[in-house]
Design a protein that fits this description.
This protein is an all-beta fold and 163 residues long. The protein is built from no helices and nine strands. It has strands spanning 6-9, 37-41, 47-48, 66-70, 74-83, 102-109, 114-120, 134-144, 148-157. Strands 5-6-7-9-8 form a five-stranded mixed β-barrel.
């Protein structure tokens, strides 16, 4: 029987790594689900991704009281492109496996007033992601080896989400 490989986030603390992770256990009306995790400054309300744990990056603020916050699960395509070459280290990739091109997408999260980059889900290309199309964040796999499955996030078009 094959041994189950360890699921390891590519970057710890940047996303929930289980689709049923409770975002707000104190508020049952807020939905659970796979989400990117950022931080919000308690003083000025600025939201950051990747997360910031030491101080507010808002140049007009500089406070140090930050709290974790799940980001919006959906956004709109701001831009995208095909990646047709293997990026150099520290990109996690097995040089022994054939290179698989993928689509990189920039997604605008309106509530957070930011753009977040990530790979499109497998099988989703530039033609599937017109600017303004609605997408959702979903669990993804960046790489696999004999010991681990390296998990990440992907963006996937929402059915009927084109503008």
């Amino acid at each position: 029987m094959a041994r189950e490989r360890e699921r390891t986030p590519v970057v710890d603390g940047w996303f929930t790594d289980h689709p049923d992770h409770p975002d707000h256990p104190e508020d049952p009306d807020r939905p659970a689900g796979f989400r990117l995790l950022g931080t919000r400054c308690r003083s000025c309300g600025s939201v950051f991704f990747p997360r910031q744990d030491s101080h507010c990056r808002n140049p007009a603020c500089g406070a140090s009281a930050l709290e974790p916050v799940p980001l919006s699960p959906r956004g709109r395509v701001w831009s995208c492109t095909d990646v047709r070459y293997r990026p150099p280290a520290p990109y996690a990739s097995d040089p022994g496996r054939p290179w698989e091109p993928y689509t990189l997408v920039a997604v605008e999260l309106a509530a957070e007033r930011m753009v977040v980059l990530g790979q499109a889900a497998p099988g989703v290309g530039v033609a599937d992601l017109p600017v303004g199309a609605e997408v959702e964040v979903v669990p993804g796999v960046l790489a696999e080896d004999d010991e681990r499955v390296w998990t990440t996030w992907h963006w996937r078009p929402v059915e009927g989400g084109a503008r």
